[in-house]
Amino acid sequence: MLGASALCGCSLLVTETTFVEPGSDTGVDAALDADVGAEDSGPADARILDAGDDAGIDGGPPATIEEIVVGPAHACVIDSRGRLICWGANLLGALATGDTSPVMGPRVVELGAAVTHAGGNASHLCAQTTEPALYCWGANDHGEVGNGTASAAIVTTPFRHGALGGARHVAASGRNTCFTSITAVPTCWGRNDEGQLGLGTTGMPQTEPGGAVQDSTGDLDGVDFGAVGDRHSCFRFADGTLQCVGANADGQLGRGNTNPSSVSEPVPGMTDVTSLSLASGHTCAVDAGTVYCWGLNDLGQVRPGAAPSAVLSPTAVAGVGAASQVATARGFSCALLSTGEVTCWGSRQHGGLGDGMPADDVSVSAPVMVSGLTNVATIQASYEHLICALTNDAELYCWGEDAISMVGGPPPGAATVFLDGETIHTAPVRVDPLAAVP
Question: Taking a C-beta distance cutoff of 8 angstroms, is the pair 285, 227 a contact?
Answer without folding.
Answer: no
